[in-house]
Amino acid sequence: MKRINQTIATLSLGLALTAAATAGDAMKMVDEAAKLDVKKVCDVKANGVAKVLAIAEKYNPAAVELGVEFKRLGIRNSVYIKGLKEAVKAKKPEVTLKYKAKGKEKKKTFKTDYAAWRACTFAVRALQQVKEADKTYRLAIPGDGFKF
Amino acid sequence: MKKSIVKASVLMLVGSAILAAGSYNAQAEKDRKALVEYTLKRFENPLKNRGLYFPYSTDKELKNNMQPVKKVEDFRLGSYAFNKEGRAQYEEIKEMPPYEDNIDAGEELYNKYAFFKKCFPDPAIAGEYPKFDDKSGKVVTLTRAINQCLVANGQKPWKMTKGKMTDLEAYFAAKSTEAGKKVNVQINSKAAAEAYERGKKEYYTQRGYLKLSCANCHVQGAGQRVRREYLSPLLGQTTHFPVYRLKWQGLGTMERRIKGCEKNQGENPHKPSSDWTAEMIYFMSYMSNGLPVDGPDVRK
Lengths: 148, 300
Prior knowledge:
The structure holds 2 protein chains of 2 kinds.
Chain A: H1 2-34, H2 38-41, H3 44-47, H4 49-65, E1 71-72, E2 75-76, H5 77-89, E3 94-101, E4 104-111, H6 112-136
Antiparallel strand pairs in A: 1-2, 3-4
Chain B: H1 2-23, H2 26-43, H3 50-53, H4 59-65, H5 84-95, H6 100-112, H7 114-119, E1 131-133, E2 138-140, H8 142-152, H9 164-178, H10 190-204, H11 214-218, E3 225-226, E4 229-230, E5 243-245, E6 250-252, H12 254-265, H13 275-287, E7 297-299
Parallel strand pairs in B: 5-7
Antiparallel strand pairs in B: 1-2, 3-4, 5-6
């Protein structure tokens, strides 16, 4: 019984530490993303699809972790990235995204370059907004930063 | 002498405890009072304040369709407090409210499961939630409390957005409205004040690919139009839930409505069961403290 209790305690501590570490890692990514120039790093013409997709893949997991992942017309940014990976691998000029909206399976096709630009800007901007919010959110509060 | 020293120390202790308890909601009270003052100022005379608050509306629109709001209680009606045309349609719908069957279904559920009477002996409790549970360190919304009661009694939790949950909440809200209850959300500890602050930060944070905060529409944008619809003010936004939305063709909880707002902002919504959503509701409900509970109700 004592051993079971000890195992549970160790597991709980491990889980708590992992959660704290993941949140800490996500915040590191926020600091890193805040220094990026979105227009430059997500420029598909200048950098190529693969590099732009790599940026999206790098930053989007932190956005998911922090609960700030972008979603447009029912498509999460993770769905863009997943579809893009397959399209880049197969060297397809178009990417077909499969997603669920209101319980129904749906499909949408985009040009690969366009989808890569979107996935990259969505991933980076989501994290940059977290940093910006620290400075701006109080400006909208009546009686605090918002004067009326 | 010894007796009077003991008496004085006890009095001091009790006094400082009361002061400490009072001080936990000091910032929240400051925020609430400022919001009330701002909202009343915004709607006291829309035509006169056009340049300041309604730059995209025409004089004709403000004159014909916006009525000044003088009483803070009127904001329990959301945009129908100032939108004349919307108010007329709302009053027509209220002649035969579409949620009456839900209230009856909720009463049946309350009587069917005996344990609900133990968890919620007085059904007129809609205005008291969310509460902060210091033991778990979490905000407990009414939706969460109902599910906690179900689980504690060996049942599966209900869906947090619609269905049986909204039926039971509709019954609680109707009983609270009947009893003339007011929104009375409490912040009684440091941890509760921190949860409130987190909820507040999220409400005022710009998010999603549209970079919109809740406040962009419901504080600085309250009373402005998005197509044909007038945006409701933050003040009074939680008084009338669960709400029957014509768009939904049914009742929904606050959790469901917030999820919809997040989608509109261009963000993947948080789960209705998340702490994020509970803390957001905690902040929003505190802002409506003192307003009459007015649920369930109808909205477009």
